[in-house]
Amino acid sequence: MSMALAAGTKLDGYEIFSLLGEGGMGEVYRARDPVLKRDVAIKVLPSFVSQDPDRMRRFQQEAQAAAALNHPNILAVYQLGNFEGTTYLVSELLEGDTLRQELTHGALPARKAIDYGVQIAHGLAAAHHKGIVHRDLKPENIFITRDARAKILDFGLAKLMLPEDGDTVTAKNQTTPGQVMGTAGYMAPEQVRGETVDHRADIFAFGAILYELVTRQRAFKKPTSAETMTAILHEDPPAILPTPEGLSPGLLRIVQRCLEKKPERRFQSASDLAFALEALSDFTRSTPAAVEQAAAGRAAASRGTWKWVGAAVFFAALAAGAIAWLRMPPAVPVLESVTQLTDDGEPKTGQLVSDGSRVYFNEGPNGSWKIAQVSTTGGRTSLLDTRVPSPWVAGIAPDNSSLLVSAGGYEDGLYPLWLVPVPAGEPRRLGTIAGSDEAFFPDGRILFVSYRDLYAAEKDGSNPRLLASMDGYIQDPSVSADGKNVTATLYTRGWASSKLVEIGADGAALRTILSSGKDGRPCCSTWTRDGKYLAYETEHRQGSDLWALPMQTGFFGRGKAPIRLTAGPLEYSSAGVSHDGNQIFAIGTKRRGELVHYDLQAQQFLPFLGGISAIDPTFSKDGKWVTYTSYPDHNLWRSHADGTERTQLTYPPLKVQGPAISPDGNKVAFTSAQYDIFVVGADGGAPQKIAEHSLGPNWSPDGNVLLFTSYYGYDRPAAERHQSYLQTFDLRTKELRVVPSSEGKGGGIWVGQDGLIAEGEVSTKLLYFDFKSQKWSELLSGNLVSWCASQDGKNLYFATGGAEPQAKRVRLSEGKVETITSLTGLRRVVDAIEGGTQIGVAPDGSIVFTRDIGTQEIYALNVKWP
User: Fold this and answer.
1) pLDDT category, 286, cuts 50, 70, 90?
2) Which residues are CB-neighbours of 245 under 8 A, at least 6 positions away?
3) DSSP tag of 718
4) Based on the domain organization, do 680 and 797 belong to the same domain?
5) How far is the CA of 48 from the CAs of 118, 376, 377, in angstroms?
6) Phi/psi of residue 201, each to 5°?
7) Average confidence (pLDDT) over 537-551
8) What is the largest CA-CA distance in the chain?
9) Structural domain includes residue 644
10) Domain containing 50: what range?
11) Model pTM?
12) Distance between CA atoms of 694 and 707, rounded to whole angstroms?
């Protein structure tokens, strides 16, 4: 049911009296039990929830968790039922206020705070004894009845643990899809870090509540939820000083012990906590009332003495308040909790879109993508059946009828656009248009990118027209809800720098709204449903985080600064906003790699160099030395080929990608995250800059010349800016030379002293350049995602994408292609800095990859907007 039930409505015999308000996943009503003649509370699920198996699983979990408990300090659940398709939960009717509402009247007297604390602790002890951890304890989830009894609510957010007494409650010892992880400000440090939690997380939350009861201040309260979670990890709350009115040292010690960062240093059971509070309560009640009487007398005298200054104080306070308001930071979005939606262990990437009940996204290795889907409340993922090859999800139609996808895309390029009906149907090609990034207008028209140009086309792909050309590569376009404005990421300096830009839907009034800075490179923006904010991602030294940027400023222009929403422990990316606007769907990543090589004799991938977490290993010509980049922190290392004598060559803040060791093993060339080429000695030292706006250095066989890809800058005509080309740098003469006819080509590698291989302007082709004849010729074509050459230059190794990715080898003298192995079962790392999967070759000729052993799942971030 999607509308409120009217008074007098009969629901399975229960007579509805009135709507009490929203409660968790449904509406809560006051009703009459006709059998037992008592008033009850009924929570009713909307039809779109009761018809969703995953949402129903969560609702049933709430009922089962609460029904397993029978305690005076826990809300009693009487019945779970279904009447004519409507699912409902019957519980005891409570009259009073939540603890949060009580706190609006000021800090509680110590005696009352202790009394509430004892009751809450007893309720927690009963739940923990049944193997149930609440995990979202906060003042909003504690109800104080009119007779001053504390009741714990909302065990639908609980995590069921295996009880020590062998109780039959279902055990779930790991984080599960759809499980709320906590609320900022009350989460224990282990919750913030995404670790498995037990009952001691509730004790930490209890400590934060008790702190708030006696101070009226939150123990951990910062301007944003990201800063709040950082404070939980690294800071102590402001100290509470003992007072004559009852804040005794004993109470403060209890609060401090509950808020210990390490679980083993807190109270180890809620029963022990209750006992400590009861002992303190007995002491407080036995204390004479003289202190309170003396305090009251002092207050009366004070009122008489200072009465004459009241008016002056009032007007001074009024003026100070006005000044404080102007200086006060504006209300900002707050990340309240995080929900894990998937748990399938598959790599994920690309844009996240939702039709209100499902989230659609890309899964699979680079170049072999599939479209996956999951309920917005979490659960099992399933694949969308489509015949479109390696489909890349770009958007969802305004009527939610179909997905906009590009076909066959795996790196920068232009790919045909298709409409894929959901939940099922036959895909349809959109005319002849092709793009690299796409989005929908609210009226169904198509917005698409062609490198540096932004186009609009009709709903069927016809009549494409140029909206704007920009000085950089355009990615991730997003259209505002009213269709009047478009935002996008603009990459400059060969992808080294980025900025968010806004342009009118007619192609006019281009402006920069956010540039790269100390917080990282901004990208991947998406509008909120009301058009007030952009949710976007920043890529920085520690990974990536999500932010919100106000697009409609408040009074006197207040509220223009970006607001950070996340700060770990996971890296969050690919933000997509839910239909109701209250959630941001994102990919949460914990990066970890394992270096492996393919053993031909064993015919399987085995750990290489001890299975270290590293990418891009390259070897000296004699095979004795290897350099690699540590993953995910991107420091440069050198060691013997057997992994001994490891030496770190670079340090933060410098980030390294694509290192290459010289044939003699004495020098290492690499690219920085800012796309500059450096050379450093194999024993360390200060790196020397060789070139700017460049990447991918590769040594000539004699070790005298470096080959790399460069990008034209702003000194070139507009049509040539940011175009790639190949250069060589002679380390003896310090001379830079452009490889003839190399405009639009990239990814060059030496194969022998007189030739090189590079990617053509069409990214599915590899070309060979002969230095003697100064001519280019086609070598290979296909769905190629990465390649490298053997040290002797006789063999080229490459990996393909598609439905059945493979590792192959080409003997260059013969042009013969050999298949080494299938890559279907190998999860390869797709690095955020390098932007693709890598392939290497060991001295024995075995291929080397980095296997992804991290986690990458979809999360729902529940945001409270101002």
Assistant:
1) very low
2) 109, 110, 291, 292, 295
3) G
4) yes
5) 40, 12, 12
6) -65, -35
7) 86
8) 104
9) yes
10) 10-92
11) 0.60
12) 10
Q: Please report which confidence band the pLDDT of residue 262 belongs to, taking 50, 70 and 90 as the band edges.
A: very high
Residue 335 domain-assigned? no
Q: Provide the residue type at 64 as one letter.
A: Q
The amino acid sitting at 508 is: A
Contact yes or no for 636/627 (Cβ under 8 A)? yes
- Residue with the two structure tokens 């844009």: 351
Q: Which amino acid is at 140?
A: E
**Same domain, yes or no: 582 and 705:** no
Angle value at C-alpha 468, between 466 and 471, nearest 5 degrees = 135
Q: Report CA dihedral (253, 254, 255, 259) to the nearest 10 degrees.
A: 100
DSSP, res 691 = E
Fill in the DSSP letter of residue 343.
-
Contact assessment for residue 791 and residue 785, using Cβ atoms and an 8 Å cutoff:
no
d(CA 660, CA 619): 8
- According to DSSP, residue 667 is labeled E
Statement: residue 167 has pLDDT above 50: no
Q: Are residues 586 and 619 in the same domain?
A: no
CB atoms within 10 A of CB 669: 27
Together in a domain, 433 and 485: no
Mean pLDDT of the chain: 83
Q: Catalytic amino acids?
A: 136
Q: What is the pLDDT of residue 718?
A: 56
SS3 225: helix
Give the Å distances, CA to CA, from 400 to 403, 419, 463, 525, 535: 8, 11, 23, 20, 21
More confident residue, 358 or 81: 358
The 10 Å Cβ neighbour count of residue 556 is 7
**Of the candidates 92, 120, 146, which is a domain's last residue?**
92
Among the listed residues 338, 326, 422, 324, the one whose alpha carbon sits nearest the alpha carbon of residue 372: 422
- Domain identity same for 88 and 101: no
Task: Tell me the DSSP string of 232-246.
Answer: HHH-PPPPPPP-TTS
Query: Rounded to whole angstroms, what are the CA distances from 147 to 168, 204, 629?
Result: 34, 27, 64
When divided into structural domains, the chain yields a total of: 5
